């Protein structure tokens, strides 16, 4: 992306010509966009970049909570790579992302299409579907525990109907616990991303649908051939945002799997590990910072992958 | 040209910022070295801040009354009261400590006391005023010494909440147990649970597995040594500890505990209040909760002394008031902390809340001996709690070295063993290894 | 004539799926509402339906702490956050959506990257910065770090990307300057996205707990979420009915706002200058 220093004059002219072609008739001074971005950039510099630099520096030290550290080079990183807990957690985080992101890109879109129709009472449904977003984590945890416990709603029904002979260990087996947490994440995300899609669907012309319907296209075909292409930029955004939040999952694991993070800590994600390491009396700020940086790098890798994928898709 | 200058400035700012932030964020050390100790002047003057843990709005009148009386006694002193909710209390303390802006007088739980005390941010109150020790219950006073810090005491004991045993009388009887004979040892507790599991048919459980809350207390009660003589190595890898795991594993398989309670136990009130659990949480505050939320279950709730096993007594966990080491108004701060924790003020407090005074004079108040007619659980709980506090001693407490991280590490191994994925012997062994590794790490200074 | 029964069937299917989703999505709130109206003498842990419904718990909530004051404080932060986010995120998103300036990709990359910083690791530094600025224990300090969130900039950018260049060009030919184009052409075209920004920033400010807790010390300045936490406490009694009533009271304004705004999602087409 960054051109080398020895870029030839011809290449520069070519680039300028390309930029001209890209912008067409719209000319603007180079600083105008920065003026527009100034408030955003200022906030980001103060409250994200600056603290981030701090985290990077701390990750190279053996600082503990409220106790200064000394420079230890990359010790924290080598320690992480040698720590089986780190690999389990990183694996869980990646697994989480791989499962949750496709669900959160597609299901809220389907939901948005469902509540888009102008039928009586639809405003109520739209608002109701948004409530999981604003429900408190504690209540969400209690409800889902009640549904998923070994003597909970699902297991009781399944046992009654003889679908299973033993209760499914939704909450007491590490792998199942991850699946249960994913269900909660998707459930919470449905309403949240539905709103994004509703905004995007506002721009999809209904006449396209009518025309396609006249051509005999069923609702499913219309969904994939008309709706999906129209909201593609929003799908990309939702994909990015849900990927980032999937890699940050802590609360769902905590409210379902307790403070150990599943039996034997087997369902811990990276953010979970970071908290466990960094907080409390023996909180290791240095090591936790290194884990944060690794989490950041992991997120970066996935968002680059995502961009590559979506670009390949467009061609 | 302009832009490359701008770039250079930006880089320079960033570099300078890094150094600034490094010193701000504790690399330079926010430890004892740079804390300028406050000094006594003999005059109680100045404005101090006082931070409490979640006392508003319920105890606003009480606390304000204590403050007003203090300000009346010392007209030169002024107290600014901040009350902070329990969730996030420690995070806020750490952030304030990081910024060098702790309140002058601050309510500390065991965790936050250890952290701030160990980092040299609290004043040694015994050094300031040795006489004051005899005002408090000895165990409570001793609790605020720190390993490796000699005879210093780093906080004034405030209120105490003792451990008790609560159980559902009806379910007790249904399981063929005598409610008048509650268990007194861990082994007996397990025997009872065995009977309950056999009789319940899966309709109710005996107790919450909650290994995090149960350890190391259960081991101590079974006579398992936790630390070696010099307090620098964990030595709990013993046949007794293995026996504990084996029994837990067996009872877990038999359904004596809710399956999910191995991981989390925050639904204990729901389960007990819904009549699905025989043994409830072991605190007097819980009895009051149940009275409010499940009056019918409350009516059938019995209270007894906690299971103490070989120890024969409970531990003592006092909330405390720490004094910021570099406070500007040391006299006002210490006088105020002593004022809040004195006998009359603590007794008055206990009339409003389910807490117990750590003050010797306060605990002697007749209201703590009154059992009523022996049927009202709340009244009995108060008497039982106070009675146990009279003999409470620190050897039943969780050792300071058993930090939250150590607890987590041990519990992870226990969970695997109780679920049957790991042999109990291996589990205890691995747990001790992990615990010792963590201990060695935190000993580094 | 064949279409009518078919349409009716479609409508029935739609309502059936809506109701099914309603049951799944509304569970926690419904349960909390039911708890909040349970009578004083009931066992709140037993069963689901209240036996002696009452509104007393709401009265108790209002009496036990300065509800209106806390709501007022929260509204100040929320209104500030909504205003600044709608304006600044739209401006930022606009700049990022328009091609033809140097550094666009780099700025975009940096902004997306900051979305990935874990909050816990930057929290203490943020606090120290706000402290340095002298904003501790002020509502401005609560608002400032969220004054314009990168997420909202991204939302606006993606909405503006949908505005075709031809439309912008014709505005240029009409002699419209940059700011005019932004306010007259682009903003109306992105009403739905603006509504999203409004809702997310309002809810962000309304729901935030840990950050206001760090910044605020005087309980007179507390926001609603901080106030609600004082309803459940270690030394106070945990009355589930009161806690639930408090949570419901906090939820209601958000629901109303959402209900009022959801119609805006659909006004992008036809109203704005842009037709796609």
From TrEMBL, chain B:
Gene3D superfamilies in the record: Periplasmic binding protein-like II (3.40.190.10)
Region (Disordered): 420-445
Stretches with biased composition (Basic and acidic residues): 422-432
Residues spanning the signal sequence: 1-24
Pfam family, one: SBP_bac_8
Alphabetized InterPro entries for the sequence: Bact_solute-bd_prot1, SBP
Name by which UniProt lists this protein: ABC transporter substrate-binding protein
Bilayer-spanning residue ranges: none
Keyword RNA-binding in record: no
TrEMBL record, chain C:
Transmembrane segments: 12-34, 75-96, 108-130, 142-164, 185-206, 242-261
Major site of localization recorded for this protein: membrane
Signal peptide: none
Gene3D superfamilies: MetI-like
Gene Ontology cellular-component terms listed: plasma membrane
Keyword vocabulary terms for this entry: Cell membrane, Membrane, Transmembrane, Transmembrane helix, Transport
Database matches in InterPro entries: MetI-like (IPR000515), MetI-like_sf (IPR035906)
GO biological process: transmembrane transport
Family according to the record: Belongs to the binding-protein-dependent transport system permease family.
Name recorded for this polypeptide: ABC transporter permease
């Amino acid at each position: 992306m960054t051109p080398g220093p020895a870029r030839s004059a011809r290449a520069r002219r070519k680039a300028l010509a390309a930029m001209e072609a890209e912008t067409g008739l719209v000319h603007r001074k180079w600083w105008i966009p920065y003026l527009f971005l100034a408030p955003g950039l200022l906030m980001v510099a103060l409250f994200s970049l600056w603290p981030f630099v701090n985290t990077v520096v701390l990750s190279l030290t053996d600082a503990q909570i409220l106790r200064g550290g000394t420079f230890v080079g990359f010790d924290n990183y080598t320690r992480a790579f040698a720590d089986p807990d780190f690999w389990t957690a990183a694996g869980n985080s990646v697994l989480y992302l791989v499962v949750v992101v496709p669900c959160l890109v597609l299901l809220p879109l389907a939901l948005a299409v469902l509540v888009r129709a102008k039928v009586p009472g639809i405003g109520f449904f739209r608002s109701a579907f948004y409530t999981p977003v604003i429900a408190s984590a504690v209540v969400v945890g209690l409800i889902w525990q009640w549904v998923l416990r070994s003597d909970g709603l699902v297991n009781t029904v399944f046992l009654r109907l003889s679908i299973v002979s033993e209760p499914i260990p939704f909450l007491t087996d590490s792998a199942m616990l991850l699946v249960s947490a994913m269900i909660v994440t998707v459930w919470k995300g449905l309403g949240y991303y539905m709103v994004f899609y509703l905004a995007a669907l506002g721009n999809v012309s209904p006449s396209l649908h009518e025309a396609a319907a006249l051509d005999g296209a069923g609702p499913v075909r219309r969904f994939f051939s008309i709706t999906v292409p129209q909201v593609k930029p929003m799908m990309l955004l939702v994909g990015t945002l849900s990927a980032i939040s999937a890699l940050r999952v802590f609360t769902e694991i905590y409210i379902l799997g307790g403070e150990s993070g599943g039996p034997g800590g087997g369902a811990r994600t990276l953010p979970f590990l970071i908290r466990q390491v960094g907080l409390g009396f023996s909180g290791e700020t240095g090591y936790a910072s290194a884990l944060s940086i690794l989490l950041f790098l992991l997120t970066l890798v996935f968002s680059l992958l995502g961009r590559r994928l979506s670009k390949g898709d467009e061609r | 040209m302009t832009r490359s200058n701008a770039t250079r400035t930006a880089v320079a700012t960033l570099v300078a910022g890094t150094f600034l932030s490094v010193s701000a964020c504790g690399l330079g050390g926010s430890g004892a070295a740079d804390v300028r100790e406050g000094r006594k002047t003999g005059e109680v003057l100045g404005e101090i801040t006082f931070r409490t843990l979640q006392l508003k709005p319920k105890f606003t009148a009480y606390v304000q009354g204590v403050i007003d009386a203090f300000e009346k006694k010392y007209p030169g002193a002024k107290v600014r009261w901040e009350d902070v909710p329990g969730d996030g209390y420690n995070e806020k303390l750490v952030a304030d400590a990081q910024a060098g802006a702790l309140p002058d007088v601050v309510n500390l739980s065991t965790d936050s006391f250890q952290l701030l005390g160990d980092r040299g941010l609290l004043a040694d109150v015994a050094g300031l005023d040795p006489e004051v020790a005899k005002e408090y219950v000895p165990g409570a006073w001793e609790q605020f010494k720190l390993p490796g810090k000699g005879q210093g005491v780093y906080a004034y004991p405030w209120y105490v909440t003792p451990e008790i045993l609560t159980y559902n009388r009806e379910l007790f009887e249904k399981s063929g147990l005598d409610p008048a004979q509650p268990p007194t040892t861990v082994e007996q507790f397990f025997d009872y649970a065995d009977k309950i599991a056999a009789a319940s048919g899966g309709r109710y459980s005996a107790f919450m597995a909650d290994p995090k809350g149960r350890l190391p207390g259960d081991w101590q009660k079974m006579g398992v040594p936790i630390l070696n003589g010099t307090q620098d190595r964990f030595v709990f890898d013993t046949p007794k500890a293995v026996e504990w795991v084996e029994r837990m594993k067996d009872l877990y398989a038999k359904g004596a505990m809710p399956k999910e309670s191995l991981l989390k136990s925050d639904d204990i009130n729901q389960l007990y209040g819904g009549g699905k659990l025989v043994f409830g949480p072991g605190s007097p505050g819980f009895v009051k909760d149940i009275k409010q939320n499940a009056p019918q279950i409350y009516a059938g709730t019995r209270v007894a002394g906690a299971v103490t096993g070989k120890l024969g007594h409970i531990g003592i966990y006092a909330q405390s008031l720490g004094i910021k080491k570099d406070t500007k108004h040391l006299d006002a701060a210490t006088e105020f902390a002593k004022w809040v924790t004195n006998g009359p003020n603590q007794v008055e407090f206990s009339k409003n809340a389910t807490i117990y005074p750590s003050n010797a004079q306060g605990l002697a108040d007749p209201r703590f001996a009154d059992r009523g007619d022996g049927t009202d659980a709340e009244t009995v709980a108060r008497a039982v709690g106070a009675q146990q506090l009279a003999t409470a001693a620190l050897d039943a407490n969780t050792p300071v070295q058993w930090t939250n991280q150590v607890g987590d590490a041990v519990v992870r191994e226990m969970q695997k063993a109780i679920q049957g994925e790991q042999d109990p012997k291996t589990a205890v062994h691995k747990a001790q290894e992990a615990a010792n590794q963590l201990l060695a790490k935190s000993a580094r200074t | 004539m064949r279409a009518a029964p078919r349409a009716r069937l479609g409508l029935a299917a739609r309502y059936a799926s809506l109701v099914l989703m309603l049951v799944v999505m509304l569970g926690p709130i419904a349960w909390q509402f039911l708890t909040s109206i349970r009578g004083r003498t009931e066992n709140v842990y037993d069963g689901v339906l209240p036996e002696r419904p009452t509104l007393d718990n709401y009265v108790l909530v209002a009496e036990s702490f300065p509800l209106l004051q806390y709501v007022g404080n929260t509204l100040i932060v929320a209104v500030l956050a909504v205003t600044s986010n709608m304006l600044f995120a739209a401006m930022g998103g606009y700049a990022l959506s328009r091609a033809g300036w140097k550094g666009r990709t780099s700025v975009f990359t940096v902004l997306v990257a900051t979305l990935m910083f874990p909050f816990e690791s930057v929290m203490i530094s943020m606090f120290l910065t706000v402290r340095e600025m002298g904003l501790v224990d002020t509502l401005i300090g609560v608002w400032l770090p969220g004054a314009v969130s990168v997420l909202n900039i991204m939302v606006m950018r993606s909405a503006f990307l949908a505005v075709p260049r031809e439309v912008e060009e014709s505005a240029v030919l009409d002699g419209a300057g940059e700011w005019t184009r932004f306010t007259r052409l682009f903003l109306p075209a992105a009403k739905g996205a603006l509504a999203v920004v409004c809702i997310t920033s309002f809810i962000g400010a309304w729901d935030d707990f840990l950050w206001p807790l760090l910044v605020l010390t005087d309980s007179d300045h507390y926001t609603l979420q901080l106030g609600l936490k004082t309803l459940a406490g270690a030394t106070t009694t945990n009355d589930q009915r009161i806690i639930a009533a408090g949570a419901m009271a906090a939820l209601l304004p958000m629901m109303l706002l959402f209900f009022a705004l959801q119609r805006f999602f659909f006004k992008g087409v036809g109203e704005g200058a842009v037709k796609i």
